Amino acid sequence: MQAKYADVHCHIQFDQYASDDEELIERMRHEGVLGIVVGVDLESSKRAVALAERHDHLFASIGLHPNREGDEWYEVEQYRTLAKSAKVVAIGECGLDYFRPIEVNDEVKRKQKAILQDQIALAAELDKPLIIHSRPSKGTQDAYHDLISILTEAKRIHPNLRGDIHFFVGGIPEAQALAALDFTLSFTAVITFARDYDEVIRAIPLSSVLSETDSPYVPPTNRARGSRNDPLAVQDVVAKIADIRGEDLETVRAALLSNAYRMFNMPGARTS
After folding, report:
1. pTM (2 d.p.)
2. Over the stretch 240-266, which tens digit does the pLDDT of each residue have?
3. What are phi and psi of 31, to 5 degrees?
4. Would you call 114 helix, strand, or coil by DSSP?
5. Cβ count near 131 (within 10 Å)
6. Pairing of β 58-62 and β 88-97
7. Which of 34, 203, 227, 242 matches a 20 to 30 Å C-alpha distance to 210?
8. pLDDT reported for residue 271
9. Percent helix, strand and coil across the chain, each to the nearest 5
10. pLDDT below 70 — which residues of the chain?
């Protein structure tokens, strides 16, 4: 497959794709879309790896989402075993979410931070990038500030630590701080209908930007609101990033694909 685009965060192992996943994956191949299928717990991580192992243009990330901390105890040995697959290119999605829990208190934050630290340690051990989910409480940047503190300390211990901040919703200061820690920022099709992220997208270097869909969520404006999204929409994301930055579409497309190759070791992606 001649790759043209990289959707660095999708969930096509979810049940929403049970009836047509193979057809969609073939369309991705036809349109040159690479995909990183991201787990949110052990079961979905296993499904992500299984799917990636069947298709040369799919890869997997394995991890425990911060909102799943009440549902699953993080068993590092099971994730370490799963990471032996050559198709596992990242650890996550993991991170801090101060927006969704019914009650965000010190104990919830403590648990989320502990699980994040476990996954940082595994990523450092395996020399794989992280895929980070970080969502602050309404009207603040609190989760990003805590994340930056944690990653800054972790980088002192693990200088090669790196990764992507999925579905970035922070401001310019947070973006710059994370980029300085060797983390890219990925954007979804929300940028096709919301202007909240334009300043950040223009402010950071193109080398710090990645494209994603977070499928099955947030379809672009050319699809029905509330409909199922899919990785093909990454083409709309890339086009909108180029539009926001006022740069040539082909230049941006090639740069974002190169950024994905640089961040994630995707074996065979260039030539398969």
Report:
1. 0.96
2. 999 999 999 999 999 999 999 999 998
3. -95, 5
4. helix
5. 30
6. parallel
7. 227
8. 37
9. 45, 15, 40
10. 269-272
